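Morning F.,

Quick status update on the modeling queue. The single chain you submitted on Monday has been processed. Sequence for confirmation:
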Amino acid sequence: MIEYQQTVRLPVYYTKYKIAEYLLEDIPDGDKTTEAIFTEKDSITAVIQAEEEIVFVGNQIFNYFFDDTFKTGLYFTDGQIVKKDEIIGLISGRPDLILSRERVLLNILQRLCGIATLTKKYVDIAKPYGVKILDTRKTTPGLRLFEKYAVVVGGGYNHRMDLSSGILIKDNHIKAAGSIREAIKKVKEYNKEKLPVEIEVETIEEIIEALSVGVDGFLLDNMNRDKIIECVELVRREKDGDDIFLEASGGITLDNLKEYVDTGINAISSGELTHSVKSSEIHIEFL
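Structure tokens below.
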């Protein structure tokens, strides 16, 4: 059964580097507004507050925005539910530095909390049926590791991190190779690392052709419920068919997810988790 490496923790060096990059983008030559209003001697306390119920993500990010001249604290850990109007954390220190970091910090927290919150809604529906909710590579450039971490915090699972960490033969690969059989043959000849091989299919005939050569998994693309059930029954009848990974994707949303979770598939992947998610409503307010 295919299992990809999961992002259960953000690397410290990577996280610091990314935050420094984001801050440089927003403060290339100082924050002209706050520098005009505040001095280095000023001090204030600000709170981070949720405007709606969310799944929190930010423990491995928050403290890298502020050095030890600040007093900071978070009241929630990653994965905990924050209810509407609850205080997530506080920051005490120079107001000019808080304000110059506020937007970047909120942008990241809002997006990651939005991803984790939406993922949990998917997971709550799928988990009782033993179906995993997977992300995709439809992530924001420069934010992939953060976003995939947020999916895991929300209870979901990471599909392949990048093009180097797994083999997924898609329709254009097949067209360019000439056939499913030829595409799989070439992949097997090349695959010295023994990476899992999954193939995207849209018809029963494509599954039969792939089974004749052998793959580790199928991505059942844009199929309705009845077609998925038919595909699952076909694959499971094969020798070692229970070990073949079956993933459904395409057109499955939070609104129709319940129609697919009892079809016998192992997982459902959704680009919606990262590419069109609504950021959570969070704000920073001075006391």
